[in-house]
Write a structure and sequence with these properties.
Helix 6 packs across helix 8. Helices cover 52% and strands 14% of the residues. A 4-stranded antiparallel β-sheet has the order 4-5-6-7. Strands 1-3-2 form a 3-stranded mixed β-sheet, sandwiched between helices. A two-stranded antiparallel sheet has the order 8-9. With 305 residues, the chain is of the alpha+beta class. It has helices at 2-15, 23-32, 38-57, 75-81, 101-104, 108-122, 159-163, 172-190, 197-203, 206-221, 248-264, 272-285, 289-299; strands spanning 70-73, 88-91, 96-100, 126-134, 142-151, 154-156, 169-170, 232-235, 242-244.
Length: 305
């Protein structure tokens, strides 16, 4: 019964977000949230359409996340409720995406990349563990505990390990590699929207190219990796605000995996994109067997784990 309730609650949060939040949480949303601009609503709409295009392409059912599930709040409040040093956070148990307004709002291209990334996360596979656990504070001596177990391809610990202090999580790097690789691919499609023409034209202008080269050199002088031109999402004219696609190291590893798997299974996959789509499908379905088989038959037994 409790598992059925948890499932019903998640569906309610997905399709009628604010109405299904506790009254106290509804008040918090109204208190902290910025209203979205028409451009931000357009971008959220595109993020839903693009993820639905991908799901349909992979033979999966499309569905749309309500615009009200996307919340843009001031940094002060974001840092209180979300992970610091991040642009946005996806809460699977609340079916919500929270943006740090200061990070996400300097330019629509930055907001677009973040919205695509987090929408890909939220539409990924999600499983909760719902169990009855001991609780001396409750009259019955027990309470219902709900925890995240699967998100995309990542696998969390069962509650029994969490309660004993032995929490662990597997495949987080692969999870972020899949999401950020598709984010970058989908971002190129977003740039073709007529509404994005002005921002696209700026990023391919000679001045922007010069600024990107200078910023890349500055990063190198700080003993950081130089930023390739195609890794920039946006850069301001004073170079003070800029963004790049996340998880470059994880993406490089995934690209290498796809390349080697294509060589091993050349009869089955014509391009590395075809191989990548197997990883993307696993992200949406939670089925790890196909990609585990590909990795193990390419790199040897036990290599996927």
């Amino acid at each position: 019964e409790e598992k059925a309730k948890a499932k019903e609650e998640l569906y309610g949060l997905l399709f009628s977000h604010v109405d299904h939040l506790p009254e106290e949480k509804q008040e918090q949303v109204k208190k902290y949230e910025f209203p979205k601009t028409p451009e931000e609503n357009l971008i959220i709409g595109f993020s839903n359409e693009e993820t639905n295009r991908l799901r349909t392409l992979l033979g999966l059912q499309p569905y749309t996340i309500s615009t009200e599930n996307y919340h843009i709040i001031p940094r002060r409040d974001y840092n209180e409720y979300c992970s610091k040093n991040s642009d946005a956070t996806t809460y699977f148990d609340k079916q919500a995406i929270i943006f740090d307004a200061e990070s996400a709002r300097p330019n629509p291209l930055l907001f677009s990349a973040i919205a695509l990334h987090e929408t890909l996360h939220l539409k990924g596979f999600f499983a909760q563990e719902v169990e009855e656990v001991e609780d001396k504070k409750e009259k019955t001596g027990k309470k219902i505990k709900k925890t995240s177990y699967r998100e995309g391809v990542s696998v969390g610990a069962l509650q029994k390990y969490d309660l004993s202090g032995d929490y662990h999580k597997h495949f987080k790097g692969l999870h972020e590699a899949i999401v950020s690789t598709q984010e970058k691919k989908s971002f190129q499609r977003l740039l073709e929207l007529p509404e994005m023409a002005e921002h696209k034209n700026w990023m391919i202008s000679e001045e922007a190219m010069r600024l990107k080269a200078e910023k890349s050199q500055e990063e190198r002088e700080k003993d950081k990796d130089a930023i390739p031109d195609d890794e920039f999402i946006w850069i301001s004219k004073d170079k003070k605000i800029w963004g790049e696609f996340p998880y470059p190291d994880s993406r490089r590893v995934l690209a290498y995996l796809c390349s080697e798997i294509k060589k091993q299974f050349s009869d089955e996959y014509q391009t590395t994109d075809d191989v990548f789509n197997e990883f993307l499908k696993s992200h949406f379905t939670g089925n790890l067997l196909t990609i585990a088989r590909l990795v193990e038959k390419t790199f040897g037994k036990g290599s996927f784990r």
